[in-house]
Amino acid sequence: MATLSDIGLAAAINILSALIFLLLFAILRIQPFNDRVYFPKWYLKGVRSNPLTSGAFVSKVVNLDFRSYIRFLNWMPAALKMPEPELIDHAGLDSAVYLRIYMIGLKIFVPIALLSWSVLVPVNWTSDGLQLAKLRNVTSSNIDKLSISNVERGSDRFWAHLVMAYAFTFWTCYVLMREYEKIAAMRLSFLQSEKRRADQFTVLVRNVPPDSDESISENVQHFFLVNHPDHYLTHQVVYNANELAKLVADKQKMQNWFDYYQLKYTRNKEQRPRLKLGFLGLWGKKVDAMDHYTAEIDKLTEQIMEERKRVKKDDKNVMPAAFVSFKTRWGAAVCAQTQQTKNPTEWLTEWAPEAREIFWPNLAMPYVSLTIRRFIMHIAFFFLTFFFIIPIAFVQSLASIEGIQKSASFLNPIIENKFMKSLIQGFLPGIVLKLFLIFLPTILMIMSKFEGFISISSLERRAAFRYYIFNLVNVFLGSIITGSAFEQLDSFLKQSANDIPRTVGVAIPIKATFFITYIMVDGWAGVAGEILRLKPLVIFHLKNFFLVKTEKDREEAMDPGQIDFYATEPRIQLYFLLGLVYAPVTPVLLPFIIFFFGFAYLIFRHQIINVYNQEYESAAAFWPDVHGRIITALIISQILLLGLMSTKGKVQSTPFLLVLSILTFGFHRICKGRYESAFVINPLQEAMIKDTLERAREPNLNLKGFLQNAYIHPVFKDEEYEEDDQFERLTEDSDDEDCVVVPTKRQKPRRTSGGSSQSLPFNRFDTDKAKPKP
């Protein structure tokens, strides 16, 4: 069990690591040759010039202005200087609301910390519960005197913890309600002021029923001309182009290798580069590298052309889905938010994601297979969570010197060293847990992709939800249960079964020391490492040396990255959980969490302003998930406090804590009913207002030209599309024109969406220019 000196050593190591990262960043960021690594967002916006294009050679590489080294910390006030409205215009609402999560942490925990240190710490410190617990062989340290473990069993002092639990809950709920109201208003305002985008007019339709007389495209066109005659504009069917996408990716890899060898040859024209065709280029026939990759590129180009023709001609490659665009946002909102037919399993509509955030491979998955895929992933996630208890138990064994001495007595000479003992208990468990979790977000994202979600935002939200559950079950509950067993091993073995719950009740708050060490490793040094961007720095310079030939190549070599919501948001939620659980139990943990929220806010604000370039904009659609998880953490803290006080002989507190949990859940339902609709439904009134303003400002808008190719698969976008007569350009009076009647291919009666069987020998089609003859 970590003592105060162990935590002090861990704090020194992590603070020193964070300072080294920050110092390296401060020096590297002002070097001209690193400018694109640390300021890529400004390059993408076209407002920052390349410092390598002018001046002497040395000044192009190294910053010779020594005054800039004196001002190496000026990035901190600069990161805080940009006001929030300007930040929203610069980086989007998603980034601004993401930063507000850190501010919410400060708003919640700073007052809670002041209150708990003023009331609970004196109550805990002046008690003698741990002195009595030592008689039962319960392990503790001097830092645990600040926790609820030091309060004697059955003492009236527990009423102070109960009152504080109510105060913490009411304050947290007040902050959450104010934030929910503010963010909901920000979202509606952002959507109203947002520039025109294709997804505002477009709906994704899935499970299009087969028709023996019409193709998928004709069926979609027929359905929407009949059921949305005044608002339907155009559509784009979904192709299964996964094989084609693989060929295009392979061609790009070959092109990169060709560029590498061509650049190598231009630097040394005396000898053409050669390579071996065997495994990893270690053996095999030696050939001319440039000729080899030229032949491979030509071969793949032919395969791509053939595959494109096959995809377009073969009806089997057309999926029963389509992107349907409407003339107005109001028409799209009505279609996306209503049921289209009596059969709820056909013609399923939802808002189309932004074209840039679509995960195209998953659009080719049959809709009926999604339920099976998700069931399989539920089972896989259960076993992943269950078996991860093993490494969690290993981590907790490292946190217990007594456990190591009992299971590995040959390590006693090393463990008995005071410095090594402090290092093992104060630093090693946190870093080992961090290493065990390093690949988990990637694994969960792969699982989300297998489930068939079609947008990057939905993939990230599902992966974030699973990561949150994993942290709750394994990192939090698993660490408490396994750690308590290891640390109280002697007590568990020697006492009767009836006394074990009491021992666990004392041991749970004692695990705060482990979480303190983990917060310092992950939330201090880990966040500081984010700003250094060591991996993008190395990759950029490797690409710049081996592949870059033009300024365009150099721009493509930049990797601005983005906020990995699926990896960072669950981490924030773990800190909310730890703070809310331990605020009435072990307040000593709160300053470490407060420092994390403040430090992370500064770091990520700088990154959002200067580095990150988001792949999509959801207008803070993730906020209800964030709110719900904080409420969940609040209820968990109340339930755990209920169980803890029961084991401490204060059963009278049970009704009060149950009532508190019910009130908290009721507050969540109120917020859900009052504000959540703003995040899941697009109000028709807002859509109509935006449509009316747009028609007034741009009466000659060519909307069809804007939407025509918005949702074409990226592998087709380099083709030249010939417009059919049915895709003529819109004119200023096109919305007021009538439709002509054209024959349909369907020659037999068909049951319509209304359920009545009738003959439909004609199909309506808007040709824009044509008018019915008198």
From TrEMBL:
- Its source organism is Capsella rubella
Please give one Gene Ontology molecular function term for this protein.
calcium-activated cation channel activity
Pinpoint the CSC1/OSCA1-like cytosolic domain residues: 200-362
Matching InterPro entries, A to Z?
Csc1-like, CSC1/OSCA1-like_7TM, CSC1/OSCA1-like_cyt, CSC1/OSCA1-like_N
Which segments does the entry list as coiled coil?
290-317
Where is each CSC1/OSCA1-like N-terminal transmembrane domain found?
9-179
State its location(s).
Membrane
Q: What is the protein's given name? A: Calcium permeable stress-gated cation channel 1
Residue ranges of domain CSC1/OSCA1-like 7TM region in the record: 373-645
